[in-house]
Amino acid sequence: MESGTHQFEPHVSEVQLRISGTGLPELFEEAGYALAELMLGEAPLPQPSPESAMERVALVAPDTEALLVDWLNELIARSDLTKRVYTDLVVDELQERSLRAHIRGVSPPVLKTAVKAATFHGLELNEHDDGFTATVVLDV
């Protein structure tokens, strides 16, 4: 889990995430960890119990940037539906326009931050010599 970094930047009723990863799968996983940390307000993230149900995620989007937003919005929607925060995230397959992953979550008594959605506002995804970086704005 040490293959990427993230930081939070306040933004009026929004939070801007800056995420990095050594590869795209790591960047997507790190984005999910950043979302969970924001929602829970704690790091390190609590891990689900071994008997916690694993859920599968399969997404298709027009491009990789949209896929990143869809990934975060899928995690947000599932959190709203199941009352879980997903802290165990594994991207099994990532292509330019599709993603397959499996996730497991914890059921916190309360959320520190309720995240409404990931947006396309200010969205950036860049490749560098040492990996990838992304900027995503979340409505909170």
UniProtKB/TrEMBL annotation:
The Archease domain, residue ranges: 8-140
Signal peptide from the UniProt entry: none
Keywords: Calcium, Metal-binding, tRNA processing
GO molecular function, one term: metal ion binding
KW Calcium (keyword) present: yes
Protein origin, superkingdom: Bacteria
Coiled-coil residue spans: none
Alphabetized InterPro entries for the sequence: Archease_dom, Archease_dom_sf
Any Pfam family the entry gives: Archease
UniProt keyword annotation of Iron present: no
GO biological process: tRNA processing
Family: Belongs to the archease family.
Record's protein name: Archease
